[in-house]
Design a protein that fits this description.
The protein is of the alpha/beta class and about 280 residues long. It contains seven helices and twelve strands.
Length: about 280
């Protein structure tokens, strides 16, 4: 089955959805840290879903985000407007697949106590799992309102008022290049980096790769979940792998491939040369 971005089907009820600004932007979104306003969220006042994993862990996330729709300057429904909105209000297929992969194939000991960054997090299912398993997690998305309206409420739902879990979270918004500059100023690196559905635009590969290169620890690991190809926008697994090979900074391993109907792949990236191996 071919895949293309489509937030909104013709049968859906547009009257229940919010339309965001339609102007296309060409400037970068400055990076910033975002802080939680209040520790709790009343779960009875939001429409949320939950996923029960094989170990019994419950991940809760806002379901009404699925009903969000945006329009471009011509009035057509679209899943993204470059430089305005990057699709973070929908929980995409690869987020579920990366969540399942982490729960089934990565031991809790490999996560607990580690520093984790989820890039382009949106609803943040993989990051929520790592948080629940004892990691300190930074959540990043291009859009500030996605962090405030989707990511932070999802964290609050999953934490259920546990302030100790919330203390292990940080939230950031902004363009990947600006975000990398912010992390450089803070001298931050991560043990684990996660990304899902971030490879649809080949023009963003350099920023994403640079973020990985500068901010993964020498012994760290990166998991990238993506559809094999994004029809209509050009990106996908093979083009990104070729880009990574040309840069020569990471070893690339395919660690998971889903079924044929909706082919999703998870890549594992590790540094080719570690400081401990030099000299």
């Amino acid at each position: 089955m071919s895949f293309k971005f489509s937030f909104f089907s013709e049968e859906s009820d547009a009257d229940q959805n919010t339309v965001v600004p339609t102007n296309e932007a060409t400037t970068k979104e400055d990076a910033r840290e975002i802080f939680i306003k209040g520790d709790t969220l009343d779960s009875e006042k939001v429409n949320y879903a939950q996923i029960k994993l094989v170990d019994g862990l419950l991940i809760k996330y806002i379901q009404e985000a699925e009903r969000h729709v945006i329009t471009d300057s011509s009035g057509c429904h679209t899943d993204l407007i470059p430089g305005v909105y990057e699709g973070g209000r929908k929980t995409w297929e690869c987020a579920y697949i990366l969540l399942d992969f982490l729960s089934e194939y990565i031991s809790a000991d490999e996560i607990a106590g580690r520093s984790v960054l989820e890039v382009g997090c949106g609803s943040s299912l993989p990051g929520l799992y790592c948080l629940a398993k004892g990691a300190c997690v930074s959540f990043q998305d291009y859009n500030k309102d996605v962090i405030e309206d989707i990511t932070i409420p999802n964290v609050q739902l999953t934490c259920e008022g546990n302030s100790k879990l919330l203390e292990r979270c940080k939230f950031y918004s902004g363009d990947w290049e600006c975000f990398s500059e912010l992390l450089c100023r803070k001298q931050i690196k991560y043990d684990i980096m996660l990304a899902s559905e971030t490879l649809y635009n080949t023009e963003s590969y350099s920023k994403l790769h640079n973020l990985f290169s500068k901010h993964i620890a020498d012994d760290g690991v990166i998991y990238v979940a993506s559809k094999y190809h994004y029809f209509g926008v050009g990106g996908g697994i093979e083009s990104f792998k070729q880009y990574v090979y040309r840069c020569g900074e990471f070893l690339v391993e395919t660690v998971f491939t889903s079924g044929e109907n909706l082919k999703c792949v998870i890549l594992k990236l590790t540094k080719t040369i570690k400081k401990s191996e030099v000299g």
